[in-house]
Amino acid sequence: MTTKTVSRDQFPKDFKWGVATSSFQIEGAHDSDGKGPSIWDTFCATEGKIADASNGHVACEHYTRWPEDVDLIARLGVNAYRFSMSWPRVQPDGQGAWNEAGFAFYDQLITALEERGIERHLTLNHWDLPQSLQDQGGWANRDVCGHFTRYATEVARRFGHRVHSICTHNEPWVIAILGYEQGIFAPGIQSRSQAMQAVHHLLLSHGMALQAMRGLGLATPMGIVLNLSPIYPASDDPKDVAKAKLDDGLILRLYMDALYKGVYPQDVIDHLGSDAPQLQAGDLATMAQSNDFLGVNYYTRNFSSSGNPWDVTSTGNAVTDMGWEVYPQGLTELLCRLHTDYHPQGLWVTENGAAFKDQMVNGEVNDPQRLAYIRDHIAATHDAIQQGVPVGAYFAWSLMDNFEWASGYAKRFGLVHVDFETQKRTFKNSALWYQKFLAGK
Ligand code: FCB
Prior knowledge:
8-stranded parallel barrel, 14 strands, binds beta-D-fucopyranose
């Protein structure tokens, strides 16, 4: 367990310090000004899918409260903000006309960030696919690749010169596996073959979009964000060891080998058998465009067991409100491994944070566990840098409490507390700590 305390001046001068959000989780205004429905609107409307039966209709009302939210970002003292664009807000059906009112929203947000000197890091797909594309099969239908490329190119044409990076997809594993195989996230499908086809189309459309956006002559850094963690066998039992290797293949190597080596790992393809993705000639080369950065979202480590599921409390480490073990050194390990095995050009921590039960007492939210989580993962990032890994950014998840997908509003990840009755924003103590850290105090 890393217990060292680091300060901002121990990081490279040009290090990006940020907070992250995503469109569906904060914007609300689900049908305002011509926005079309996304798969998450549909999923939320399906009984039993969201723990508290909530939806994204209002969320943090960021669509109208964005000036206040930009103020919060500026007050924190970060130099970078990672956010996503809602595809159905700017192209309601995902393949037809552009919605100028939707683009105007992002234009004013970007302008406000520019005025504050805060870098803009834009994600094109943080899960809210236009529903009308899902009606045609969504990410499991190869046609989506062309639609996504058109959307990406239009966004890059309009905003590419005003943002500091463009990420195509946030966490393809989550989209494909939780959405199309386990069915616990939108669109709620349970089919391994559809999930694997979705993986393939996400990676393929990433490559196609990069080629097309670069064709505009933009120098803007472009890349992708993956959810990754180290995976350990639950015991020395060879069955657990084999399971851990396979799980690492399904979660990390499938994506990293495709993106950085232009191959799908053979052991994973063999394991998938008839569910393995269907490829066309040239797909693998298209997927392996050079990325200017790889974004890593890290929350916890994983254990693989061939028998009973791993007991998360067995290590004695703290466990978050999501039931995730707090394990900062897993981040150091992961960053070192990615650097050694794949040598990505830029390596950024694009999400890291924790849900804990917060209480507002006399206008104050004391959240020592979240504060320690963020502090220790920043130290873990520093450990990786000291071991020679050129990490370039750390974005805390999240700016503020928001709609946590299938968990609804019950799980709070924010540095800033949101009272969902009044929409009042309050800095939690973790936010005050981050603010001090960023000020070099
Ligand atoms: C990640 C998502 C993000 C948020 C965190 C807790 O998987 O990218 O939107 O929900 O988990």
